[in-house]
Design a protein that fits this description.
Blueprint (H helix, E strand, L loop, with lengths): L12 H4 L5 H18 L4 E3 L19 E3 L9 E8 L26 H8 L1 E2 L20 E2 L3 H6 L3 E8 L6 H16 L16 H38 L14
Helix pairs in contact: 2-5, 2-6
Length: 254
């Protein structure tokens, strides 16, 4: 690729953070939906951003990823926001006084704090220094989360489930996965087990393999698209550059 004029590092990390981020999210969200529906006693809603008016009972102001009517604790609706994110971030991209990035030392240190602020929201906190999540001190600007209506107005049960593309689920996602697993164990399980591996004939193994595969394949597809876009951009730039003029041969005397 470098021979073609594409500037990239040895590991190609820049392609993991570039381009369309939807494929790993969308592919794995379908797995979550199918997993939930396999043990559900009522239809599981899959959000569609083209029809936001259809989901106002769950949340007003932002289309949810997945919802289950009256399946939350106490009979409220269950609202799920699913994220499949890359933990790779550029240096100094954290907004001053808002969030911090600690992915080099903490699991989900580059993803969860930012996503909690964006989706759940935070209260203002005074301070003279930048926010330090290790100490819980520092200045924080108030921010209204995307699911403010679901959490604080409708009092629905909200789950912010997160996966990182290199592997791992946050605590909330693990709890939600276990909930569906236990629901299938003690109730109904409509899962169609087709894997030849006997270990994948169990609910947890089956759906965790499908979830992992969806994230990896979706991210690979997105990364390859980013590579192709970069190659085309470099080729177009090379074609637009003026070609150097070559001096003609001097005429020889006869």
């Amino acid at each position: 690729m470098r021979a073609e004029g594409v500037v990239c590092g040895d590991l190609g990390d820049e392609f993991l953070a570039a381009g369309d981020r939807r494929p790993p999210h969308d592919d794995s969200l379908r797995v979550w939906h199918d997993m939930a529906q396999a043990s559900a006693t009522s239809p599981v809603t899959l959000g569609d951003k083209e029809r936001p008016e259809d989901y106002l009972d769950f949340n007003d102001g932002h289309v949810l990823d997945m919802g289950e009517t009256r399946q939350g604790k106490g009979g409220v609706d269950r609202v799920v926001e699913w994220k499949a994110y890359s933990p790779l971030v550029q240096v100094s991209t954290s907004p001053a006084m808002d969030t911090s990035y600690r992915g080099s030392t903490h699991a989900f240190g580059n993803t969860e704090e930012h996503l909690r602020r964006a989706n759940i929201g935070v209260k203002a906190q005074e301070g003279d220094q930048r926010w330090d999540n290790a100490k819980g001190t520092g200045k924080v600007r108030a921010h209204k989360g995307l699911y403010h209506d679901a959490i604080h107005v409708k009092r629905n049960e909200f789950w912010l489930a997160i996966a990182e593309i290199f592997g791992g689920l946050n605590k909330v996602a693990r709890r939600l996965f276990k909930l569906y697993k236990e629901r299938a164990r003690h109730g109904v399980d409509r899962t169609q087990y087709v894997a030849s591996d006997s270990g994948a004939s169990h609910f947890g193994a089956h759906w965790s393999q499908l979830l992992s595969a969806a994230i990896v394949i979706g991210d690979a597809r997105r990364s390859l698209r980013a590579v192709d876009m970069k190659r085309r951009a470099c080729a177009a730039a090379a074609a637009a550059r003026p070609r150097p003029q070559t001096a003609g041969r001097a005429a020889t005397a006869t």
